[in-house]
Amino acid sequence: MTISVFLLDDHEIVRRGIAGLLEGEDDIVVVGEAGTAAQAMARIPALRPDVAILDVRLPDGEGVSVCRDVRAAVDPPPACLMLTSYSDDEALFGAIMAGASGYLLKQVAGIDLVGAVRTVAAGGSLLDPRATSVVLDRLRKGEEPEDPRYASLSPQEQRILALIADGMTNRQIGAELFLAEKTVKNYVSSLLHKLGFARRTEAAVYAAEHRRERGR
Fold first, then answer.
1. What are the HTH luxR-type domain coordinates in residue numbering (predicted)?
2. Is residue 156 within 8 Å of 176, Cβ to Cβ?
3. Please, what CATH class does the domain formed by 3-135 belong to?
């Protein structure tokens, strides 16, 4: 049986590398690819792949959300294999909650990625049993999972995001945190990219909502 695979990664060179690796196997075919969450959501339901390899961090969102939404929109849903450059407990938590079948770092060897595709296509799981037990334990305790987008921010970016929510300008933030205004601007650009926002006002609204949620 041929395994059909869809690739989602915002770096074209990464997509080409993975596609070349998988297409070299007799039993795997890459049926489509995308560089953004929006493109993936438009293409996956029509292509109905057996496996979707999803980058965790994207310019317009996150792979975890794509996993959750695609599994709700497609019947039968594809097995979702999350691929990331970072080891992130909260992102792993989000992947498990979204119904992902596997979670791998991009440093994975090519032969292991091919094996992972075959494993999840056959209904297997590549999620660490210890991590899964931690998730179930948190659910039993009724704990709300941290938004993986917020968890991806560095402590300094989280502080700057909070000050943006307070209505501060870059110059004011710099004075508050003893940083150069250009440095603050770089931090703001980075946190907007990680959160999947194009505008500062979107980040301010998100930060205010996050603050309310965590204060409950």
1. 146-211
2. no
3. alpha beta
Residues of the chain with CATH 3.40.50.2300: 3-135
For the segment 168-200, what is each residue's pLDDT rounded down to a tens digit?
A: 999 999 999 999 999 999 999 999 998 888 889
Dump the DSSP string for 104-170.
EETTS-HHHHHHHHHHHHTT--BS-HHHHHHHHHHHHTTPPPPPHHHHTS-HHHHHHHHHHHTT--H
Beta bridge partners of 4: 29
Q: Which two tokens stand for residue 132?
A: 């899964």
The DSSP call for residue 211 is: H
Take residue 96 and report the two structure tokens written for it: 């498990």
User: How do residues 115-166 score in pLDDT, each as one tens digit?
Assistant: 999 999 999 888 756 556 666 666 566 555 567 788 788 888 999 999 999 8
CA angle 67, 147, 38 (to 5 degrees): 40
Q: Which residue has the tokens 């869809």?
A: 6
Q: Could you tell me which of 74, 76, 70 has the C-alpha nearest to residue 100?
A: 70
Q: Which fold has domain 148-214?
A: Arc Repressor Mutant, subunit A (1.10.10)
Q: What angle do CA 86, 89, 95 make, to 5 degrees?
A: 90
Dist. CA 139–CA 97, nearest whole Å: 10
User: What is the C-alpha separation between 57 and 71, in angstroms, rounded?
Assistant: 18
* pLDDT value of residue 97: 77
Question: Cα separation of 194 and 62, whole Å?
Answer: 9
Q: Model pTM?
A: 0.62
Residue 135 gets the label, from left (phi > 0), alpha (psi -120 to 50) or beta, of alpha
